[in-house]
């Protein structure tokens, strides 16, 4: 029991006339009056999964709060350069997530309360606990409670029956115990004694106990600690309202971006479909064109070929006649007498003149049949 801190309840201290506390303190616990206007106060946190590491999902005794306001266990934080939730860089300094840390230990208390046998007395460790002292943060059995009440009779510790707590919800328990942890003065002027803070010095941005605030004239102007914590809550709430508006704007922007991305993907898909369709059409076109050309080449084989054959036949005939003419003229010269010359010369001359009018046929390539030409043109067009 000697190890117990000389905890002075904040309420008791504040009730004393303390000139440093300039703001009147309401008797009720510091609950924000405008809380009703918060939109999603009923957010379902009942399983408290949010206390787990945002990276590995494990329970951590020392969760760290990142600049992006996600929470990682020390192992995950040292392993990564990016927040696994939002991909923000984790290089910015992180702080201990005291809220989650405290919630976690209070949740463990709650589990003790709800455990099959209920919690045991934290002092004698022999009996089942009857009450929970919010100031000592300890479970007490009936006998130890009597002793505790006698010991703290001047300070009136707030105790709750374990049975009553058991009947409530975890959320209720955590909400009710949130104010029970007192803030102790960290001033070096009284190292032997821990005193509960009730004063806030805005200059040092630090909580002080009443005596420290009065003795050290460097601190001023003072604010009541509860008023300061209300002010800080208000500040956060007002920021949250601003951020909600911003979030709606971001949601709208994200929706637009998503819509645009979907539109582009759709466009790309349509184009892909068109490419596929026209490739198919082209293939079909090429196939039918090839079919037609083959038909064109096969359908009229005689015409083109026979024209050429006639030409060739004609040329061969002319060659034979030229040869015959040459021989006849030669033989007539060699063997013919005047009689033959007189009788035959005019006829032969006529035939020779006729032969002389002939011209050799044109080179066949230049007279390509029209179907081949057409074929060639259409092939090139493909
Ligand atoms: Zn982790
Ligand atoms: Zn993050
Ligand atoms: Zn006991
Ligand atoms: Zn107590
Ligand atoms: Zn102090
Ligand atoms: Zn100060």
TrEMBL record:
- Ranges for domain RING-type: 53-87
Report residue spans for region: Disordered: 1-45
Renumbered to this chain, the Acidic residues biased-composition regions fall at: 36-45
Occurrences of domain B box-type (ranges): 121-162
User: Could you tell me the keywords of this UniProt record?
Assistant: Coiled coil, Metal-binding, Zinc, Zinc-finger
Which processes are annotated in GO (biological process)?
Answer: innate immune response; intrinsic apoptotic signaling pathway in response to DNA damage; suppression of viral release by host
Q: What Gene3D superfamilies has UniProt attached to this entry?
A: Classic Zinc Finger, Zinc/RING finger domain, C3HC4 (zinc finger)
GO: which molecular function terms? zinc ion binding
Which residue windows does the record flag with biased composition (Low complexity)? 8-25
The lineage's top-level taxon is Eukaryota
* PANTHER family hit by this protein: BONUS, ISOFORM C-RELATED, PROTEIN PML
- Name listed for the protein in its UniProt record: PML protein
